[in-house]
Amino acid sequence: MDEVRVEIEGRQLTLSNLDKILYPATGFTKAGVVDYYARIAPIMVPHLAGKAVTLVRAPDGVDGERFFEKRCPPSAPGWVRSGGRLGSCVVDDAPTLVWLANLAAIELHTQQHTVDDPDLPRATVFDLDPGAPAGVLDCARTALDLRALLDRLGLAAYVKTSGSKGLHLSVPLNGAQPEITDDVSKAFALAIGKVLAEAGPDRVTVAMAKTQRTGKVFVDWSQNDANKTTVAAYSLRLRPEPTVSAPVTWDELSDAIDASDEDALTFQTFDVLERIAEHGDLYAGNLTDTQVLPTLA
Q: Count of CB atoms within 10 A of residue 232's CB?
């Protein structure tokens, strides 16, 4: 087994099997996964910090067996923090992120609260999931409608691709409403979703049953449940190509719709690193904006 010793922020890590191909369709190797997470760490870690992380590991790549791991692996170095109800890994620094990448933890999912304040959601999220034949452009139209509705309520929102086939919207709260609970956040998301579904019943649904989602965008309000997780910003996905859950601008959604270009909302690792170099963190406001959810009659 080929091993390489590296030092990251003063921590010693042993990396192994770097030549192993994890994305056969593109030849993207484990070295590419590790390199991406090492390079994106300064931007990504703040979005992970303090939160319990659910890992989706694929040691044999995207075509092999994959499994969720909620508890931090027992092989974790002593400097890897764990917390939460299940003792999950908490990614507070670049060495932890790279250590996880070396485990082929390709996807990282988080809850909306931190392990130190588990009763206080930091954001309300909307997971827009298209039911075939609906696609990401249908999600983009719904996202713009959702943004307009939130804007009328005085709420800012940030949007990212899921890295798969949908979009995620986040309404940052960040402690401005100490009495808020996951149930309140979830009820708010459902109420907003119902408004959209009533305005466009042929295009949008809040129904949990998959049989009712065909050709529609499902506004998944349940992602705000205390036990649910959402893929983190900048996480790789287990897709045929190394796509990333990438923050985008609202103009990019509009432009993709106007051009009927689904590919405009698909980003691989190299795209994301180039976007960071050009635009910085388009999701930064999700960490800093403080907002209060209005009471909906």
A: 20
Distance CA 252, CA 205 (A): 24
CA angle 96, 280, 7 (to 5 degrees): 30
Q: Which residues pair with 4 in a beta bridge?
A: 15
The pTM (predicted TM-score) of the whole model is 0.97
Cα dihedral 268/225/191/158 (nearest 10): -30
Cα 141 from Cα 129, distance rounded (Å): 12
Q: What is the pLDDT of residues 16-34, one digit of tens each?
A: 999 999 999 999 999 999 9
Asked if 167 and 139 touch (Cβ cutoff 8 Å), the reply is yes
What's at 294, amino acid-wise? Answer: P
Pairing verdict, β 204-205 and 217-220: parallel
Q: Counting runs of H as helices and runs of E as strands, what totals does the chain give? A: 7, 16
Tokens encoding 192: 């907003």
- Give me the residues paired with residue 120 across strands: none
Euclidean distance between CA atoms 244 and 253, whole angstroms = 16
